[in-house]
């Protein structure tokens, strides 16, 4: 049992009130607490994770939060440290964001697109994202599947994303990782894997992973063109999107979806393959819808 009061004394906090624990089924320890009516968030990560990873995590919050003010701030200890090691965990304290999570609505997707564009304008960050942009590992996957030949053919068409625009990326850019403050400002949360990486992978994540709605019971699928359009409108606003840029976003979408195809276990592989194929079929339909907006293409 972790003595949270003892841990938080490293920040000089006295008379701490522990409020809630989040993700209790996780090995990570995440608690909200308050001191003198100020709410904060304590995050503890098992020390099997290397210290370099923790440095990257807190650095991302320092950069996007304390410096750019579009993520929760890191709270420092009295001697200026941004994290500590105690009881087998790395701990750091962040600002608790008062507000609401973004939702899968047109309005919120538009706001998410705008904040994504702002984040992607930052190129001077010192840490690389932990996202592996190399497709080579995927060629070893699914050797027992009937779709293996088609799968490899799809991989062959994916570019080397490291040769295209590199910037600060989140790696899991969806409404579930964004909050709207009480004043209406949108910020990003959960920066654990963020850093410098491929812009097109970051934008592309949602175009299959999120925008394809899949009914597990009926296996029916639906594409949320409204959300995809809203995100792109927020991201590009009145800027023109070239067909080449659009193609790169979709190649990023395919890469990101494939990267998750083994995450949910062997029984999820075939449904995820079907989702991939269905999602790819929506690319030209969405493009045709974008063309109809003359100020957008």
TrEMBL record:
<dbReference type="InterPro" id="IPR047175">
    <property type="entry name" value="CotS-like"/>
</dbReference>
<protein>
    <submittedName>
        <fullName>Aminoglycoside phosphotransferase family protein</fullName>
    </submittedName>
</protein>
<dbReference type="InterPro" id="IPR002575">
    <property type="entry name" value="Aminoglycoside_PTrfase"/>
</dbReference>
<dbReference type="Pfam" id="PF01636">
    <property type="entry name" value="APH"/>
</dbReference>
<dbReference type="GO" id="GO:0042601">
    <property type="term" value="C:endospore-forming forespore"/>
</dbReference>
<dbReference type="InterPro" id="IPR011009">
    <property type="entry name" value="Kinase-like_dom_sf"/>
</dbReference>
<feature type="domain" description="Aminoglycoside phosphotransferase">
    <location>
        <begin position="85"/>
        <end position="209"/>
    </location>
</feature>
